[in-house]
Specification:
- This protein is α/β, with parallel strands linked by helices.
- It has two domains: 11-396, ANL, N-terminal domain (Rossmann fold); 412-510, ANL, C-terminal domain (GMP Synthetase, Chain A, domain 3).
- It is 30% helix and 26% strand.
- It contains 14 helices and 26 strands.
- It has helices at 11-21, 37-53, 69-80, 94-104, 116-125, 183-196, 215-228, 240-249, 259-266, 291-301, 376-382, 421-429, 465-473, 501-510; strands at 26-30, 33-36, 60-64, 84-88, 108-112, 130-134, 163-169, 177-182, 205-208, 231-234, 254-257, 281-284, 304-310, 317-320, 334-335, 340-344, 359-364, 371-372, 383-384, 387-396, 402-407, 412-414, 417-419, 434-444, 448-457, 484-488.
- Strands 2-1-10-9-11-12-13-14-15 form a nine-stranded mixed β-sheet, sandwiched between helices.
- A hairpin with a 2-residue loop joins strand 19 (383-384) and strand 20 (387-396).
- The longest helix is centred in the first third of the chain and has 17 residues, at 37-53.
């Protein structure tokens, strides 16, 4: 197992070091925006000072922002101001954002113009007094401090043991939960991953197409480039032609992607025959990557794909295929250094299973969350005797390479995003003509999985897929809306009267 490379107390110290060592190197690119590390740090320090003055220190600051230079600046600034970063999905509806903002009890909300309408009511209802609107005709840009030569970070800098990020994730109940991660957990996990998959200092230029509110993109793109003193090229929104252009024009050496993106590019005619001589690696995460896609990508582009595995609760990286070792097709690699990873029986969770046997994956190490905010019972269910029980089913081979085999949870992963059946079912049950509803995942070559609904109508009522789609679209993000609606007379039941989701899942696999 390789030794840990340099680790920092916090990601703030990491950015300060990058700016001191490479002040003039390009740090951020997004559209017309280009910032050196000196300008990057000035903007972060300027916003951090403002957040400190607004009383953010010791509280939580929520970001509801799409990909931009602004979200990069804001993410580091919240940490520098001594507040806990709470990044939220800008695609969420008001109904979805409300419970998370309420649970987080944020002191400041930073949002971009695209979500202004959705957050306006929540700001009033939750009495959020400190709001920073970014972009749009009346909004600000967080690059306003780029020429502020006298700017310095507010003191004191955050401590390693202080709260760093409240990363909302989900579970089998369908309720979003905020994973409390310390600065230490976030920072050491970067070094743990670097030990297996090191990026070249002062060389790398990474294209980030993944959403930066997500823990995968924040770790593999935002923080990884600051650690390596590299350039992060951010795409505000995905389009295959723009990906191709940026790979060439920005001399990209690293691509952070998910299976959906790779599959989409491989099936895009203009991508066929492309060669990217500077691209050395493609990182894939957030959802399982089919082996066929790996082989096609590597054959077409002449570059390697490195797959890893993680969870929000683990900072997030748990394992990776090492650069200085074999890459095994279908495997998510080996455990990061300073982490214990075991496969245990699914009944008690205490019996360690040998290589080749499937069971629940559990881990322990310095990068784990302290627990779920305001969820003591759910925390106790996954953190036991220092171990994080992941809820994922896997097995280890004789070389201790990990293979993911399934999930104990009912959670559906659509293009890397978590969809919780209960949440969709609750929306369906709110329709006046719905008597019963159940949602299961259907395998999909492009998105990994798609939610599929089975719905029974109330007596004498009529239902249609068009009507149900419209109903769901008003309360759910687009990727949560079922891809198909099966109108049935009755839902199958188990012997104790519960909806038999195993039978429904088997049915969708046959369609």
């Amino acid at each position: 197992m390789p030794d840990l490379p340099r680790d920092y107390p916090t990601v703030v110290h990491m950015l300060l070091d990058a700016a001191a060592r490479a002040p003039d190197r390009e740090a951020l690119v997004c559209g017309e925006d280009r910032l050196s590390y000196t300008e990057y740090l000035r903007c972060v320090a300027g916003l951090a000072q403002e957040l400190d003055e607004r009383g953010a220190r010791g509280g939580r600051v929520a970001l509801v922002m799409g990909n931009s230079v602004d979200i990069c600046i804001a993410s580091f600034a919240v940490h520098m101001a001594g507040a806990q970063l709470t990044p939220l999905n800008p695609l969420y509806t008001e109904n979805e954002l409300g419970p998370m903002l309420d649970d987080a009890d944020v002191s400041v909300l930073i949002h971009d113009d695209a979500v202004s309408t959705r957050v306006a009511g929540l700001i009033r209802r939750l009495s959020i007094e400190q709001v920073i609107a970014v972009g749009g005709p009346d909004g600000r840009r967080l690059t306003e401090w780029r020429a502020g030569a006298d700017l310095t970070p507010p003191q004191p800098l955050p401590l390693a043991e202080s709260p760093g990020t409240l990363q909302f994730t989900g579970g089998t109940t369908g309720r979003s939960k905020g994973a409390d991660l310390s600065h230490r957990a976030l920072a050491i996990n970067i070094s743990q991953r670097e030990a297996l998959v090191p990026n070249r200092p002062d060389v790398e230029r990474m294209l980030c197409v993944m959403p930066l509110f997500h823990c995968y993109a924040s770790h593999m793109c935002l923080h990884a480039m600051a650690y390596a003193r590299g350039a992060l090229v951010v795409m505000p929104r995905y389009h295959p032609d723009e990906v191709i252009r940026l790979l060439h024009d920005e001399c990209i050496t690293l691509l952070g992607a998910a299976p959906t993106l790779l599959t989409g590019l491989l099936n895009y005619p203009a991508f066929t025959g492309q060669r990217f001589p500077l691209l050395t690696r493609t990182y894939s995460g957030s959802a399982p990557l089919p082996e066929e896609v790996i082989h096609r990508w590597e054959s077409l582009t002449g570059t390697i794909v490195i797959e890893g595995y993680g969870q929000s609760e683990a900072g997030p990286v748990i394992s990776f295929n090492p650069v200085a070792g074999p890459r095994k097709a279908g495997s998510v690699g080996v455990a990061v250094p300073d982490e214990d990873l075991q496969i245990v029986d699914m009944e008690s969770g205490n019996r360690v299973l040998p290589a080749g046997q499937q069971g629940e994956i559990r881990i322990r190490g310095p990068h784990l969350m302290s627990g779920y905010r305001n969820r003591p019972d759910e925390t106790a269910g996954v953190l036991r005797d220092g171990w994080l029980y992941t809820g994922d089913i896997g097995e280890l081979d004789d070389d201790r390479y990990l293979f993911i085999r399934g999930r104990k949870k009912e959670m559906i992963i659509v293009s890397g995003y978590n969809v919780f059946p209960r949440e969709v079912e609750e929306v369906l049950h709110a329709h006046p003509n719905v008597r019963e509803a159940a949602v299961v995942g259907r395998p999909d070559d492009y998105r990994g999985e798609l939610p599929v609904a089975f719905v029974a109508a109330r007596a004498g009522a009529d239902l249609s897929a068009v009507e149900l789609t419209r109903h769901c679209a008003g309360s759910l993000a687009p990727y949560k809306v079922p891809a198909a609606f099966n109108i049935v007379a009755e839902l199958p039941k188990t012997a104790v009267g519960k909806v038999d989701k195993l039978a429904l899942a088997a049915r969708v696999r046959l369609t």
